[in-house]
Amino acid sequence: MSDRVEQLILDLFAIEAVKFGDFTLKSGIQSPIYFDLRVIVSYPVIMNEVAELLWETTKKSGAKFATVCGVPYTALPLATLMSAHHDVPMLIRRKEAKDYGTKKMIEGKFEIGSRCLIVEDVVTSGSSVKETAQVLESVGLVVTDAVVLLDREQGGKQKLKEAGIELKGICGTAQLLEILRRHEKIPESVAEQVRDFVRNNSFLPGLEPPVKKSRKVLSYRERGDLCQHPVARQLFSIMEKKKSNLAVSADLCTAEQVLQLADQVGPHICMLKTHADIMTDFSTEFVQSLTELADRHQFIIFEDRKFADIGSTVQHQYRDGLYHIADWAHLTNAHALPGSGVLEGLKQVGLDKKRACLLIAEMSSKGNLATGDYTKATVKMAEEHKDFVVGFISQSQLTEDPTFIHMTPGVQLSGSGDGLGQQYVSPWDAVVTRRADVIIVGRGVYKDPDPASAAQRYQTAAFEAYQHRLAN
Ligand SMILES: O=c1ccn([C@@H]2O[C@H](COP(=O)(O)O)[C@@H](O)[C@H]2O)c(=O)[nH]1
After folding, report:
1. Within-domain flag for 326
2. Which among 248, 251, 332, 411 is the best mutation to test ligand 1's pocket, defined by most ligand atoms within 8 Å of the CB?
3. Please, are residues 413 and 425 in contact by the beta-carbon 8 Å criterion?
4. Rounded CA gap, 370 and 367, in Å?
5. Nearest CA residue ID for atom 7, ligand 1
6. CATH code: domain of residue 390
7. Would you say 325 and 318 are in contact if contact means Cβ atoms under 8 Å apart?
8. Over the stretch 29-75, which tens digit does the pLDDT of each residue have?
9. Domain edge (last residue) among 200, 231, 255
């Protein structure tokens, strides 16, 4: 195989798929080396050889997969050849979801939970592979392996490993330079310049290049298009249409108070959060009226039940008892503390009803224990239950997966705490600094003499913060 890799590098150099000079990369960095693998479509013999070597490299690594998917666009023909020659089904990732028809981001047939191999032409920081993995995972596929023709050796492999993806490459920059030097295709001074560049432009933590990376921040609409769960899709769509990323927490003790508040703040919110168990007169009539208000004003109902028991018990708490939560709350939440059984239990009740759940990964209260490894384990649990878990209650952004929604309580325009452990940040801080998608406000709204105006103030503050995030 090494003779074939050597010949391939010489061929790539000959067709100017590998160039030396002074190039401005997408990130704005000046680079002395440039890979333009797009040209290989004009050289079918070379393209075929690349696809074969990608296949052999993958097989040698022992990677197991049911489908292959090329990172658009250069790797698409490579994945196609691998698929056709080795009889392994291919998937196509769209760069943008169609705005008509089925709005699929992934074309092709697959089984939920099956593995997909990502194929790429060049890896620098690994972000394109990661982005493709996120889209594949958002539809229920599993990504553990990726294969690339050229690894620039700037930290992408390590970054992907941190994200749980094993990257195998046909050739790295060091080997490529060695081959070209041995065949006297480039002078030693050029090879040294490239080695220097690679050393000084690593994407490893602490060694990131000093330039701003231009990763696109997705809008709520774009994120909604990526989501599979109907509640997540509906929420993002309401947020975009109503220009609201505000959830009001109706922590009130009578049905009349909750319904009055819901009607007053309805036009300004994307979600109403309830604590059914603090109400003295909870009834089916209340549920009916709340549901009507949610339909009229277009908001999601979130029962902040914070389930935290074994699967069998939470199933009863969710389905039965006084509140029959699963019958009316689009969304509920759970602690990760009991382990994944809590989700298995809730899912058996909620999935058929198309309900969704958030995991409590961080809390706003002083001295709480939902930090560090606990928070990380919570994120992992959410990733393993994406059919039901659509996001987090958190105080910061915990994952780059755009299909997870981060909701942040402990938000007020004025005030830093309540004397009982609650800690407040401003809407700007929550959305811009901590990267919340939705802010949750209780007393800041319902204790105001004019809750509708207060909700409008929070709505404007939080949505302007989101628009700032989009633009910067
Ligand atoms: O970490 C958490 C989790 C949940 N909450 C809930 O949010 C509201 C906040 O009400 P405020 O009046 O705005 O303080 C309340 O229902 C809590 O149970 C939280 O605050 N922190």
Report:
1. yes
2. 251
3. no
4. 9
5. 409
6. 3.20.20.70
7. yes
8. 788 999 999 999 999 999 999 999 999 999 999 999 999 999 999 99
9. 200
Among 148, 165, 200, give the residue marking a domain's end: 200
Total structural domains in the chain?
A: 2
Give bridge partners of residue 250 from the DSSP assignment. Answer: 274
Do residues 425 and 324 both lie within one domain?
A: yes
- What is the arrangement of strands in the sheet containing 90-93, beginning at the earlier edge strand? 106-107, 90-93, 67-70, 116-123, 145-151, 166-172
Pocket-testing residue among 364, 374, 416, ligand 1, by greatest number of atoms within 8 A of Cβ: 364
Residues 168 and 24 in one domain: yes
Residue 209 resides in a domain: no
End-to-end CA, the chain: 46
Instruction: Tell me: do 118 and 259 sit in the same domain.
Output: no
Residues near ligand 1 (Cβ within 6 A): 249, 251, 275, 304, 363-365, 393, 409-410, 422, 440-444
Identify whether 308 is part of a domain. Answer: yes
DSSP E strands: which ranges in 261-330?
A: 271-274, 300-307
The one catalytic residue in 104, 185, 306, 353 is 306
Residues 182 and 330 in one domain: no
Residues 450-460, mean pLDDT to the nearest whole number:
97
Same domain, 293 and 236: yes
For 177, the domain range is 2-200
Q: Where are the beta strands (DSSP E) in 25-82?
A: 30-35, 67-70
Residue owning tokens 């080795």: 86
243: CA distance to ligand 1 center in Å? 23
Q: Is residue 106 domain-shared with residue 235, that is, in the same domain?
A: no
Q: What is the pLDDT of residues 354-373, one digit of tens each?
A: 999 999 999 999 999 999 99
- Regarding predicted confidence, which is higher, 124 or 335? 335
pLDDT of residue 212: 40
* pLDDT in the model for residue 28: 63
pLDDT in tens, 130-162: 989 988 988 889 999 999 999 999 999 999 999
Residue 206 lies in a domain: no
**Ligand 1 atom, smallest distance to 446 CA:** 12
